[in-house]
Amino acid sequence: MFLQQLVNGLSLGSIYALIALGYTMVYGIVKLINFAHGDVMMVGAYTGYFILRAMNPGIPGLLMGFVGAMLFCALLSLVIERFAYRPLRTAPRLNSLITAIAVELILQNVMRVLPFVGPNPRQYPTMNSVNFQLGPVSISNLQCIVIVSSVVLMVLLNILVNYTKTGKAMQAVSFDLQASSLMGINVNRTIAITFVIGSILAGAGGVLYATAYPQVDPMMGYMPGLKAFVAAVLGGIGSIPGAMLGGVLLGVAETLTKGFISSQYADAISFSILIIVLLVKPTGIFGKKRVVKV
């Protein structure tokens, strides 16, 4: 029973980790909590929904759903960053935070009033579930797709950040935005790329989440987005490995709570873990203390 819940937790935690990476990347560069990130995930899930309805929900359809969701979320993030966040980059942080909440509400309500979406939940088209028995553990083909896809995307993100010119520019802007601009780095383009990468991961996470829990509605991004934010803070917001670890820990804690205690306490225990960790280590698991010179 414990091993089975552990596998379920890895599947859920890998989705939280993907979404949390978007939070932590944006915060690491522009110090913005992008609360609209969970609703970008929702838009990605709906994009995959319409593609899968037009195609058979098999491997080719799922791949097309992934690609379509990631591309559409990337374009959406460019629009949001250019018209909502960039004009407020030098404004007080509270202004950007309120704007992020406004963008979140706009995305939710726009999807609710669109005639081809609407406010009612819809069944998500998925392939037939096939279970594989590995000793005492049963794992489905859908869980395998979720875990493998998440791991591949995380590995690609690490390669991009640590071994490419764009990744080096992102690290430089995260360390010192003004100095990076003086050194010839195009700060606006680097920040836009960061939003795009985070939204690509959110789009993929939306398709994976809807595949694992096959139902979509305009409010579906709120709770996964909030938990992904908790995962990012738990691991140390601004730290990419921290977001990955925080997502997995949160997913495992949630499924173990549902399996051994009660599903009613899953959310409470997840947030309690965050509080306990922050009491012991306020910067999160991988977070680092920063000295501010005045």
* Helix content bin: over 70%
Could you give the order of strands across the largest sheet?
Answer: 1-4
The succession of helices and strands, N to C, reads HHHHEEEHHHHEHHH
Structural class: mainly alpha
Beta content: under 5%
Radius of gyration: 19 Å
The number of helical segments is 11
What is the β-strand count?
4
Overall pLDDT confidence? 89
Task: Describe the secondary structure blueprint for this structure.
Layout: H1 2-30, H2 37-54, H3 59-85, H4 93-113, E1 122-123, E2 131-134, E3 137-140, H5 141-163, H6 165-175, H7 177-182, H8 187-212, E4 215-216, H9 222-235, H10 240-260, H11 266-280
Antiparallel strand pairs: 1-4, 2-3
Structure description:
With 294 residues, the chain is mostly helical. The chain has helices at residues 2-30, 37-54, 59-85, 93-113, 141-163, 165-175, 177-182, 187-212, 222-235, 240-260, 266-280, and strands spanning 122-123, 131-134, 137-140, 215-216. Helix 1 (2-30) packs antiparallel against helix 10, helix 6 crosses helix 8 (187-212) and helix 10 (240-260) crosses helix 11. It is globular and about 55 Å long. The chain starts with a helix and ends in a 14-residue tail after the last helix. The model has no long low-confidence stretch (mean pLDDT 89).
